[in-house]
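Revision sheet: structure tokens.
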Amino acid sequence: MKRTTLSLIAGATALAAVTGFAALSAPDGAAAPEAKATTRLPVERAGLVCPAPSTSEVAETLYTSYTPTGTGSAPAAGGKAEPPTAQLRTAAASAPSAGGTGKTGKKPKAAKAPATVTVPGKPVTAEAEGGSVPALTGAATGALAPGWTVQQTTVVPAGGARGLLGLGCGAPDTDFWFPASSTAKDRQDYVHLTNPDDTAAVADIELYGPEGALKSQFTEGIPVPAHSTVPVLLSTLTSEPGQKDVTVHVTTRSGRVGAAVAAADDKLGSDWIAPAADPANSAVLPGIPADATSVRLVAFAPGEEDADLKVQLVTATGTIVPAGAGSLHVKSGMTAAADLPNLTRGAVGSLLLTPSDPKKATPVVAALEVVRGKGEDTEIAFIPATAAVSARATVADNRAKGSTLSLTAPGADAQVKVTASAGSQGGTPVSKTVTVKGGTTTVLTDLVPGGLKGSYALTVEPVSGGKVHAARTLALPEDGVPMFTVQTFVDDRGTVEVPTAHQDLGVLD
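Predicted:
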């Protein structure tokens, strides 16, 4: 029996380009092969999940689907590239799991038009109205897969869920952290679990309060059927409700899901809580609005050691320690919180968390609860800790007068390329190279496509220097309420590292 080394490596390369992962291992008892050089190829398929946007009958939702230009898609080895697609489809609402999950059973209502991208570089939008709009799942292939992103923006002008709710639809995964959640009486927090796959998934939910793990029920083995979504009301999962600060940990024991937390405060408004970055020794939470009237930091230490954190604000002129709030002690397995009054003082900033003692670094997850406005005219949003942009990241649905881009370089000086795409209804894309001095936050409000009509996407790509963390604030005030939402830039994983195919045509007997 004969085969060539080339065909094996080429096959693994094609697999990696499609799935984002490839591994070659030697048979048991055999010596591992010598490490081969790697290269990066564009992914050929990308999947996203958008949760059901709202239960309010007055909700208005805009979906913006976009793929940036600049990353081609190579055909699989020995094959031809299929026509590219990027499309969302309805995920059915499933029956609540034990413990109660909120309203389901209504007939799903499709968007007025499919949020389908046809070419890279131009956003495509779709609208939906009311409280019966379903969750969506979708996939992009070919040239539309690398960097595909979908932004879900919902305006609820009245009622208990009043607010501007923004969320970058996420990739399905098996592990999510949500600090800044709550089971308090004035909060209604639902974790939405959506399964995009053809087989059922099984999820577990863990809740951690200031005293540690909350006594929970109905949190293990939650079934999420194929192509379905399950919303779970957090306060029904524990016999210890009324916790202001809760960290939610979602994992799957089989399959994968998309996950996000819809948080609604009776007095402050509502928004989505996106997953925080994986536990790390330091954290950056970018894009705190200049006029924030309240900022609350929530952190959790998932390991066996306590975490002592140094808290700093990264401003346009440098990094400072907030008055009276320069440190936070986080006990192992417990959620800690701290109010940061008068934090921004009229200037956009980002929060930086680092170990108080670099020799005793402990991984943490963190998020901010941010409030704008006063009295009855308030609005709430959440900023999770986010990793630096490693290759490229995009946030869609930006408006000509309502978008603020924050770029934070916590370490060394850095340069990034920022591109404003063509508009969804017309306009010419523009790009700008921005230098961000180390230890500062740079703000952009004027990078808008020429002749803009409709909304546009912002894409950030590192050029040189240190790491950069980014966030976009979208402000759409309505009837005196300073409605806003903040989305962090998450690397789009448009390329994947795969083994380089060597021209080794030696024959193995």
